[in-house]
């Protein structure tokens, strides 16, 4: 039986290369630094960690801070040598998401996509409203009114759901109309188009992630009680902030029927 000498994790940390054929590893050893690796300039190196010689801005333990521009450039150069890629600069547009980066932070919105949706459903000249849904509005699957094209209604709901990537303010309303895609009526369509009218007046809304050193995680949650008049289930809603930046949000109907508002709140907390 071969005996292998165990070394402290503080001394040697191996990062496996993505390609199994090359089987190379980068040694991040702080004291011994054994093993053969790759330096930022693409040359093989031995012995001490060459990144430390180049003044790499790292925290104790070898974790990069992520605020050193030279690290980004070195990483892009390494990736360009390994894969066919092109550096087109800072992100400005991606799958309908518009990104504006500045010294103060990053703004993410979907202004162009909102205009496209308004044009698609002939709502570009509609009159804006202040809220995406009327207060205390209740919808049912058995609403009176003529049936509308389910395909058209599903297409509208799908577009609105994609907008919730940056528009948490319409998430609850979109979740409500999503419950009636099987047999939609003119009442359901009217509620859906009200959301479009709200978007018409808030096209410039989006998410702003400011530069901050505050990393406190704060969450807010709430629920209604028996909000769905068809099955008497409640709706859970929550949003989490990292400092002043929203990082996660949801609005979803609960899976069980609660017997009191207190029980509905407990279900929300445990979701």
UniProtKB/TrEMBL annotation:
Region (Disordered): 1-73
Domain of life where this protein originates: Eukaryota
Full protein name: Reverse transcriptase Ty1/copia-type domain-containing protein
Biased composition regions of type Basic and acidic residues, renumbered to the chain: 38-60
Database matches in InterPro entries: DNA/RNA_pol_sf (IPR043502), RVT_2 (IPR013103)
Reverse transcriptase Ty1/copia-type domain boundaries: 66-134
């Amino acid at each position: 039986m071969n005996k292998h000498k165990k070394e402290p994790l503080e001394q040697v940390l191996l990062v496996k290369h993505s390609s199994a054929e090359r089987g190379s590893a980068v040694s991040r050893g702080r004291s011994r630094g054994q093993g053969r690796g790759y330096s930022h300039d693409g040359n093989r190196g031995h012995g001490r960690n060459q990144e430390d010689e180049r003044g790499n801005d790292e925290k104790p333990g070898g974790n990069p801070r992520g605020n050193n521009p030279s690290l980004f450039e070195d990483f892009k150069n390494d990736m360009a040598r390994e894969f066919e890629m092109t550096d087109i600069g800072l992100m400005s547009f991606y799958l309908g998401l518009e990104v504006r980066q500045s010294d103060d932070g990053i703004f993410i919105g979907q202004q162009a996509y909102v205009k496209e949706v308004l044009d698609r459903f002939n709502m570009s000249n509609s009159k804006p409203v202040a809220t995406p849904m009327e207060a205390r509005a209740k919808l049912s699957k058995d609403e009176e009114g003529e049936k509308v094209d389910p395909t058209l209604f599903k297409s509208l709901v799908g577009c609105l759901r994609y907008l919730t990537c940056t528009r948490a303010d319409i998430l609850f309303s979109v979740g409500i109309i999503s419950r009636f895609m099987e047999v939609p009526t003119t009442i359901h369509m009217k509620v859906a188009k009200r959301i479009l009218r709200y978007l018409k007046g808030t096209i410039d809304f989006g998410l702003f992630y400011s530069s901050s050193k505050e990393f406190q995680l704060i969450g807010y949650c709430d629920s209604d009680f028996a909000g769905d008049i068809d099955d008497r289930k409640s709706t859970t809603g929550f949003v989490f902030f990292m400092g002043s930046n929203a990082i996660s949000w949801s609005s979803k109907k609960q899976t069980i029927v609660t017997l009191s508002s207190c029980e509905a709140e407990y279900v929300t907390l445990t979701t």
